[in-house]
Amino acid sequence: MKTYKIPESVLVVIYTSERDVLLIERADNPGFWQSVTGSRATQEETLVETAIREVGEETGIRVIPALSGSALPDNVILQENLHDWHMTNRYEIYPAWRHRFAPGVTMNTEHVFGLCVPKDIPVRLEPREHLQYAWLDWLDAADRCFSASNAEAILQLSQRG
After folding, report:
1. What are the tens digits of pLDDT across the range 124-150?
2. Assigned domain for 35 exists
């Protein structure tokens, strides 16, 4: 039995306090730059859990709850830096990717999160998913995104910090 993707996803804008934004280039569509995105793995997985999982899978950045008295490894960021921006986008799934969803599913609901990280945090891409990454000024990052909802989320940084 084929397992289909759930048509509910997260978009996580990873940025620094200077409003530099991390973009990653899709391996299955070279030239398509985006923030971290991904669908819920199960109906039981919360959106925060989805965001944490996708950030880890796509960038190697681990988001964890607060620790007391411990120094953090260089690729770890505390969960207090992950914020639900309470923005939701609903969009048509590209025809080329619809085979991943149940027959008849054409729309996806995307929930937007922001994750503030230090500029020097190491990024380790999953090579099957992404070719390269770039840190860009937030306006340049918005211009480079292939997705209008991703660009609009990045532009929200002017109001968020």
Report:
1. 999 999 999 999 999 999 999 999 999
2. yes
